[in-house]
């Protein structure tokens, strides 16, 4: 270029860009250039085709943008078109500066942060060189020689001016060599490197065997049951302890109680536990089988065969019909909709209410019949199974055709449902546990209740005490033996065993082992199992419509339901039905509601009577029936079904239909409506799509009269600022109506219209087209162009849509809040929708402050969290009447290590927390954060597969077993049909079960300490020899027979208030929630009480035996009579103690308590006569006569239990009189048949006053976003997919409802 003069450049007709190593010469000769162009045209199609199918979607879109720049009337090739487009814009070369790096950046080959380098004739380090024709030689040859040795890199592109834009095409050619695989068919498996990609044959055998499509969410399999079960059981210290005792008892001459008195009960306990686990896991297997046995149509040998889901395998071609779940991960081949589009509902995966669009690639979109599918030959190469829900990379390689790129827009994931689409054909790519859904699931965790963990710890403490007692007794025995071995030689205590401390320690270890009740575990297992049956058969939690009862899938967490402090709930399908209903609208200062008939509708009558507002009403209804992306489908019976990606839009169009404006036809060019019998056609000129940034949607139409109008619907904040200053007649009235709608929890939208001059429209349309074809910052330019036309609006009114809640949701949430339970909503849906639901279900009140965290960076998130946390720390309240709302992006920053602590402090202070747009893993992280930081018992409830992670992370997981909640229900601990049943599950069953299990555990330890510590007191008189006071088998039968029934009665029938009272007064849940019935303090009070009773139960009879003569004839007896007397007093005392702690007496309770006492006396009468008929129990022969004939026994039977329990009675009397709790007061009212409302009102007034004082601390509004707060107060919410596979404006132009749809046969 240095040898070329400026004059020569100016005289040239065109300015060329050097595109390859030889085109400098050819460009100087027109014939050579023409021949070169013909050669390039032949290769251009191949290059562009490869570029479409082989490059990533984002690169593909940018290439299309670049291609649009080159589409001129010139017949030149791609490179010459670029040159021509540039030459026409560069009349003066010396002042020209072209930014090419940014275009290269769009193509994906240059980093986006590379500074744009201006193309100037003086620069030799640019991406493109402008030159006229010149000879080859000198520096140019040198530059090309150097360029040949350079790699295709960013540095080489930017360093050589001579290559210029030629580097773009040469770079693509080299990348084609790198990316492009050989299209020729090869033997399957020969070019497959396992660990890199999966190869799937089309209509042929697969190269390898892939995973089957059977799934399992059960805890055990036949192989894993034994090791997993034993691991679970021996995590309990008590079972480990009893196994040790059983092993020690096998040592000869060590055990004073026999060899099998511990081993047999332990085996029995483990057997009962195993049976219970097997029964519960069978339920899980049945639920899995219900899914595995679902039916689907599979293509086999040219015919469609119905098979089970579990029979599907990779490579199968299947047909999925409308409203059916996808059985595996599929690649979409074709569908009943135009251009292989289909609508899917992913609420089960991500919680979003709007439908999403997926589209098959053009090469398979025409496979609409079975014979077409059979001709599909080739293979699909894709990535290996992974857990990335929103990413997929694959290539479709049909024989004899170019390769086609496959992305996430072509994938239909297991767990999603086909909607608004009659059928689709899909190819199975991932099955069973290799699907993305199952990859994101974890194995069922082994959960343990808080009571179990606390019991485990206390058993460890008791074990330490037992060791101390053993050491003390062993040392006492050693000292006593050393002192008496010489004098008391007749005892034979001078041998090695008697003098050995180790043997004595083992003896006492076995003797005292019953301080830890071996029967407790089996009693707990059986009681929990029966409690689970009570839950399963509770008719109040049975959902008749779906024929779905409540189901306790595990019984180990029954008492945990009474300790819940935090509830984490999904929104879609859990709180809501995901059904939008048009409720009312505001038009020209009037509020209208749909009526049963048009004759009853005031709105319709106003139109027919030509009311002064009739023109506004008509325009309002036209807007509802025209401004949308809904697709109508006419059924054979004449009815019309509306299909829409947005449930809001479907509700709005249905609302217009209820007022007589029926939308029934859509074509690529126009829509038609039936307006009260009059057909009207509107030509759709432009569609300005909804985005979360725009918060509005507009369509520009040509009316039947030929006028051009813009119809807009959106948030009141964006529409009000675009109103014409001359058309604000309804502004204030509509605003007031919006606030009224929002107070009812309805979703609102404002509607407005603008008249557009045709000349203005034509000018704007050209501007909009340029923005739509812009290479740089297209989205911003499109928004700017839309803003140019969306002005001077005239407000028509507003709509109110109800996002229908599940039955009883507001009442349930109110009850749980009264019970002191914090409720967090974790949803994948949009922020406006989530907050709107918060208001409608009364989780958020209008008196509550709202903190909204929507930050774009870690620093911004840190600043706002620290600021709000600082505000709360400066106050003294620990529970603020504040709702915190945070989106998924901000949550990602808030959960980082350096912010997690401050964020969780802020969350815990707030009364309500709503997390929006969160992923399944973020849900689990939030649940885990709260569970670990607060040490509270948490509950997660959801209905979709996206809720499985948080259900498994929470202390208790609840699955909604609706039509879409099978995955969540299978992974849950308990399943219910609707959210409202959670109220009864927690407030009734949870509180009851906690009280029952707590009393059962405390009572079991109490009764064992009562009896077996007596062996310690007797050791004082037996020379610390380890001699037992009681007959051997009575020791073993104490827990198994004589005191087994009272714990069962307590664990199954104990309740301090009736179910109706518990539901009516949720405050009664607080004692169990705060663990007041079972904690370390209460546990050791019971142990001390048992020790005190054991003192009375041993020393009082011992005092009666002081003179040894216990009969009138002066006869005496041995130690065994004393033991049986003490044993009798113990049984009577512990049974009466059970009655003392019982709040609810039933006939079964009476039978358990009094029957146990009678059972002991019956046993004495029978067992005393075993000998000599049976060579068994010789030392018990005649014991009934000895025991029942002495008056001391009968006197003691009256005095000893009363004396022992006297202190308990006094303490209970004082407690119920002076320290009466709310529960005690309510129970007394029930016993006296009085209404407990007065008692509750006194408690509530105190509670309300405290809450008022706390609320006064926070007098400042917490909102930091005035516009968002305004929208929330007015109820704005709208669901629509953004950035989908196909833009909505393209979708609606692909449909022609006048044409029939393919049958797919």
UniProtKB/TrEMBL annotation:
It is a multi-pass membrane protein. GO terms for biological process: phospholipid translocation. The chain crosses the membrane at residues 459-481, 501-520, 1036-1057, 1078-1099, 1119-1140, 1152-1171, 1191-1211. One of its GO terms (molecular function) is ATP hydrolysis activity. It is found in: Cell membrane; Golgi apparatus; Membrane. Its cofactor is Mg(2+). GO terms for cellular component: plasma membrane; trans-Golgi network. The active site is at residue 570. Residues 969-1220 form the P-type ATPase C-terminal domain. Residues 35-44 have a biased composition (Basic residues). Residues 8-34, 111-134 have a biased composition (Polar residues). Mg(2+) binds at residues 570, 572, 943, 947. Residues 208-263 form the P-type ATPase N-terminal domain. Keywords: ATP-binding, Cell membrane, Golgi apparatus, Magnesium, Membrane, Metal-binding, Nucleotide-binding, Phosphoprotein, Translocase, Transmembrane, Transmembrane helix. InterPro entries: ATPase_P-typ_cyto_dom_N, ATPase_P-typ_P_site, ATPase_P-typ_TM_dom_sf, ATPase_P-typ_transduc_dom_A_sf, HAD-like_sf, HAD_sf, P-type_ATPase_IV, P-type_ATPase_N. It catalyses: ATP + H2O + phospholipidSide 1 = ADP + phosphate + phospholipidSide 2; a 1,2-diacyl-sn-glycero-3-phospho-L-serine(out) + ATP + H2O = a 1,2-diacyl-sn-glycero-3-phospho-L-serine(in) + ADP + phosphate + H(+). ATP binds at residues 570-572, 649, 690, 713, 747, 827-829, 917, 923, 946-947. Belongs to the cation transport ATPase (P-type) (TC 3.A.3) family. Type IV subfamily. This is Phospholipid-transporting ATPase. The gene is LOC117572164.
């Amino acid at each position: 270029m240095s040898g070329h003069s400026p004059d020569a450049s100016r005289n040239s007709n065109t300015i060329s860009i050097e595109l390859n190593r030889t085109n400098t010469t050819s460009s100087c000769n027109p014939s050579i250039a023409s021949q070169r162009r013909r050669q390039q045209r032949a290769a251009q199609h191949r290059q562009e085709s490869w570029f479409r199918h082989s490059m990533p979607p984002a690169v593909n879109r940018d290439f299309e943008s670049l291609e649009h720049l080159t589409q001129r009337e010139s017949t030149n090739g791609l490179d010459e078109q670029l040159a021509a487009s540039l030459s026409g814009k560069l009349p003066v070369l010396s002042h020209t500066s072209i930014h090419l790096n940014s275009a290269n950046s769009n193509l994906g080959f240059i980093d986006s942060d590379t500074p744009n380098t201006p193309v100037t004739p003086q620069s030799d380090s640019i991406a493109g060189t402008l030159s006229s024709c010149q000879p080859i030689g000198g520096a140019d040859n040198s530059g090309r020689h150097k360029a040949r040795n350079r790699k295709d890199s960013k540095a080489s592109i930017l360093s050589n001016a001579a290559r210029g834009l030629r580097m773009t095409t040469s770079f693509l050619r080299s990348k084609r060599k790198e990316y492009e695989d050989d299209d020729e068919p090869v033997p399957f498996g020969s070019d497959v490197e396992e660990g890199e990609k999966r190869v799937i044959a089309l209509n042929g055998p697969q190269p390898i065997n892939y995973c089957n499509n059977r799934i399992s969410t059960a805890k055990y399999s036949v192989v894993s049951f034994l090791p997993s079960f034993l691991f679970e059981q021996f995590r309990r210290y008590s079972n480990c302890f009893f196994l040790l005792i059983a092993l020690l008892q096998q040592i000869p001459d060590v055990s004073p109680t026999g060899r099998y008195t511990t081993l047999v009960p332990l085996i029995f306990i483990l057997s009962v536990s195993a049976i219970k686990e097997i029964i519960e896991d069978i339920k899980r297997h049945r639920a899995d089988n219900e899914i595995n046995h679902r039916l689907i149509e599979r293509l086999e040998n040219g015919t469609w065969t119905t098979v089970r889901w579990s029979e599907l395998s990779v490579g199968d071609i299947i047909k999925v019909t409308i409203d059916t779940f996808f059985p595996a991960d599929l690649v979409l081949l074709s569908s009943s909709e135009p251009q292989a589009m289909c609508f899917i509902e992913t609420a089960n995966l991500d919680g979003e209410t709007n439908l999403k669009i997926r589209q098959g690639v053009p090469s398979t979109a025409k496979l609409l019949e079975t014979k077409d599918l059979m001709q599909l030959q080739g293979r699909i190469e894709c990535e290996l199974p992974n857990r990335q829900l929103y990413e997929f990379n694959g290539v479709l390689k049909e024989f004899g055709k170019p390769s086609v790129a496959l992305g996430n827009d072509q994938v239909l994931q297991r767990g999603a449902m086909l909607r608004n689409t009659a059928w689709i054909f899909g190819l199975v790519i991932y099955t069973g546990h290799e699907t993305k859904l199952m990859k994101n699931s974890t194995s069922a965790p082994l959960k343990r209740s808080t009571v179990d963990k606390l019991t485990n710890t206390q058993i460890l403490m008791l074990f330490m005490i037992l060791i101390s007692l053993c050491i003390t007794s062993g040392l006492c025995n050693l000292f006593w033996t050393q002192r008496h071995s010489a004098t008391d030689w007749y005892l034979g205590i001078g041998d090695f065993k008697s003098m050995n401390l180790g043997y004595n320690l083992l003896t006492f270890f076995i003797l005292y082992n019953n301080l830890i009740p071996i029967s407790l575990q089996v009693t707990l297992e059986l009681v929990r199992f029966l409690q689970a049956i009570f839950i399963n058969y509770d008719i109040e939690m049975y959902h008749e419509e779906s024929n779905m009862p409540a189901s306790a899938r595990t019984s180990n967490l029954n008492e945990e339901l009474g300790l819940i402090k935090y509830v984490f709930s999904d929104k879609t399908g859990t709180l809501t039905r995901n059904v939008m209903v048009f409720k009312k609208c505001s038009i020209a200062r009037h509020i209208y509601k749909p009526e049963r008939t048009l004759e009853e509708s005031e709105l319709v009558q106003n139109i027919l009577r030509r009311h002064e507002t009739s023109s506004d009403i008509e325009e309002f209804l036209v807007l509802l029936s025209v401004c949308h992306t809904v697709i109508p489908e006419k059924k054979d019976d004449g009815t019309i079904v509306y299909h829409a990606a947005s449930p809001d839009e479907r509700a709005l169009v249905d609302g217009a239909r209820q007022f007589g404006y029926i939308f029934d036809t859509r074509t690529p060019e126009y829509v038609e409506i039936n307006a009260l019998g009059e057909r009207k056609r509107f030509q759709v000129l432009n569609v300005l799509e909804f985005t979360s940034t725009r918060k509005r949607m507009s369509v520009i139409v040509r009316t039947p009269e030929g006028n051009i109008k813009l119809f807009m619907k959106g948030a009141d904040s964006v529409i009000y600022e675009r109103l014409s200053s001359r058309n604000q007649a309804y502004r204030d009235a509509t605003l007031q109506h919006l606030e009224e709608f929002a107070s009812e929890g309805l979703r609102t939208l404002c509607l407005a219209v603008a008249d557009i001059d045709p000349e203005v429209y034509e000018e704007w349309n050209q501007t909009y087209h340029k923005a739509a074809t812009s290479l740089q910052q297209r989205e911003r330019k499109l928004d700017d162009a839309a803003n140019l036309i969306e002005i001077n609006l005239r407000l028509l009114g507003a709509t109110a849509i109800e996002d229908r809640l599940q039955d009883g949701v507001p009442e349930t949430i109110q009850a749980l809040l009264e019970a002191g339970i914090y409720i967090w909503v974790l949803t994948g849906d949009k922020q406006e929708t989530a907050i709107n639901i918060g208001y409608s279900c009364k989780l958020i009140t209008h008196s509550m402050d709202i903190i909204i965290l929507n930050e774009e960076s870690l620093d911004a998130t840190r600043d706002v969290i620290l600021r709000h946390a600082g505000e709360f720390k400066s106050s003294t309240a620990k529970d603020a009447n504040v709702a915190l709302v945070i989106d998924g992006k901000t949550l990602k920053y808030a959960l980082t290590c350096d912010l997690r602590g401050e964020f969780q402090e802020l969350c815990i202070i707030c009364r309500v927390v709503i997390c929006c747009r969160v992923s399944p893993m973020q849900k689990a992280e939030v649940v885990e954060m709260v569970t670990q930081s607060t040490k509270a018992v948490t509950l997660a409830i959801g209905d979709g597969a996206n809720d499985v992670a948080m259900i498994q992370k929470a202390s208790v997981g609840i699955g909604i077993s609706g039509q879409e909640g099978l995955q969540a229900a299978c992974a849950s601990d308990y399943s219910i049909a609707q959210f409202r049943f959670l109220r009864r599950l927690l407030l009734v069953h949870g509180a009851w079960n906690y009280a029952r299990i707590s009393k059962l555990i405390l009572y079991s330890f109490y009764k064992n300490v009562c009896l077996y510590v007596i062996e310690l007191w007797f050791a004082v008189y037996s020379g610390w020899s380890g001699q037992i006071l009681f007959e051997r088998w009575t020791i073993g039968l104490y827990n198994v027979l004589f005191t087994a029934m009272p714990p069962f009665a307590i664990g199954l029938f104990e309740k301090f208030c009736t179910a109706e009272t518990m539901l009516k007064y949720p405050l009664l849940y607080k004692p169990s929630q705060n663990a007041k019935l079972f904690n370390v303090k209460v546990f050791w009070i019971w142990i001390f009480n048992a020790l005190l009773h054991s003192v009375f139960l041993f020393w009082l009879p011992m005092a009666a035996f002081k003179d040894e003569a216990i009969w009138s004839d002066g006869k005496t007896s041995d130690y065994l009579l004393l033991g049986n007397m003490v044993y009798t007093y113990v049984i009577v005392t512990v049974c009466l103690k059970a009655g003392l702690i019982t709040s609810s007496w039933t006939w079964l309770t009476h039978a358990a308590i009094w029957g146990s006492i009678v059972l002991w006396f019956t046993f004495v009468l029978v067992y005393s006569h075993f000998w000599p008929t049976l060579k068994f129990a010789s030392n018990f022969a005649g014991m009934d006569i000895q025991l029942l004939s002495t008056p001391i026994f009968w006197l003691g039977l009256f005095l000893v239990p009363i004396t022992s329990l006297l202190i308990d009675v006094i303490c209970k009397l004082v407690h119920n009189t002076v320290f009466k709790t709310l529960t005690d007061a309510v129970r007394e009212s029930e016993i006296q048949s009085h209404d407990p409302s007065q008692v509750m009102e006194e408690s509530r007034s105190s509670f309300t006053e405290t809450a008022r004082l706390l609320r006064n601390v926070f007098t400042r509004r917490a909102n930091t976003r005035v516009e968002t707060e305004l929208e929330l107060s007015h109820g704005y919410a709208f669901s629509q997919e953004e950035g989908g596979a196909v833009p909505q404006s393209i979708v609606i132009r692909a449909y022609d409802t006048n044409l029939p749809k393919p049958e797919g046969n």
